[in-house]
Write a structure and sequence with these properties.
The chain is an alpha/beta fold and 289 residues long. It has three domains: 27-61; 66-194; 196-289. It is 18% helix and 28% strand. The chain contains six helices and 13 strands. The protein has a ten-stranded parallel beta sheet with strand order 1-2-3-4-5-6-8-10-12-13, with no helix packed on it. The protein starts with 28 loop residues before the first helix and ends in a 5-residue tail after the last strand. The mean pLDDT is 81. It holds the Pfam family LRR_At5g56370. This is F-box domain-containing protein. Residues 1-21 are annotated as: Disordered.
Length: 289
């Protein structure tokens, strides 16, 4: 009987099992952590699966890309060595009642970790703490189904996006927030309540606006000279719409519902001021106005 052919052994390269040399294994830990810091949390976790060494270094990763908290009594994700930085925090409690003390501690812990995006969605339109507008590192605030106090301090020097959906907010707080946010660019107000019959929004920094009035609002006044994109809806109870001219307007969407009484709204001065208008959509009564 003949001999069985011997299997050839593959020669292992000096640089490892890959096609090229392994540069990551020879890097010190501080350099690898600096690389991790420039990745998102998902990418950093994926990279940690390459070796046992990277898996141990992930425990020293100092940033959490996004965190969702349902109970304010739970601590924010962090490691014993040092507190982790959190980019975005979403708070959506599953139960109705939320302890104000626990809620305030959660926001204080998020502010200590340099949070930049905050999203809050409450049950039964609960009140948010007064410190929600005092986190100076915030750039994006999104509030849904909640209520703001009649007065609270506002210090948002870096705020660029503000989204208010089904929020009970008085007219005084709208004025305070817009004055405290000098670089605000995007404002979305959808079915906000708390206005005494009419709502007035005035800002020179807002570039993009989405506005849908609540059912009880009868008047809407928008004074924004720097607008570039506007989306405006009205309801049958709205009697007065005042839209100040915006010379920098580029895109407009106006949906004017047929009112129950005569509507006081002139669209011609707004259109004449927009010399650079490239896209305009008129729906409902806006075509006749």
């Amino acid at each position: 009987m003949g001999r069985a052919p011997r299997k050839r052994r593959r020669r292992r390269r000096a640089g490892g099992g890959g096609e090229g040399p392994d540069y990551l294994s020879g890097l010190p830990d501080d350099v690898v952590l600096a690389i991790f810091a420039r990745l998102t949390t998902r990418q950093a976790v994926t990279l940690s699966a390459l070796s046992r060494r990277f898996r141990g270094l992930l425990a020293q990763f100092g940033r959490v890309d996004s965190a969702t908290v349902a109970d304010p009594a739970l601590p924010l994700p962090s490691y014993p060595a040092r507190p982790s930085l959190i980019r975005r925090l979403a708070f959506a409690p599953s139960r109705g009642g939320v302890s104000p003390v626990a809620f305030r501690r959660l926001l204080d812990a998020a502010a200590y970790r340099g949070i930049s995006e905050l999203a809050i969605r409450l049950q039964r339109s609960g009140f948010v703490p007064k410190s929600v507008l005092s986190i100076r590192s915030l750039t994006v605030i999104s509030l849904d189904s909640c209520a703001l106090p009649r007065w609270c301090p506002a210090a948002c020097p870096h705020l660029r996006t503000l989204k208010l959906y089904h929020v009970a907010i008085p007219q005084r707080m709208i004025n305070i927030i817009l004055k405290a946010a000098p670089v605000l660019e995007t404002l979305e107000m959808v079915y906000c309540m708390g206005f005494a019959g009419s709502c007035c929004v005035e800002s020179s920094s807002v570039r993009n606006l989405l506005f849908k009035p609540a059912l009880e609002q009868r008047g809407v006044t928008l004074k924004m000279a720097g607008l570039r994109t506007v989306t405006l809806y009205t309801r049958p109870k709205v009697q007065t719409v005042r839209l100040e001219p915006a010379p920098e307007i580029r895109k407009g969407y106006l949906h004017i519902v047929r009112p129950r009484v005569k509507l006081q709204f002139r669209i011609r001065p707004f259109l004449d001021a927009g010399t650079g208008l490239t896209c305009l959509t008129l729906r409902g009564m806006a075509i006749n106005l």
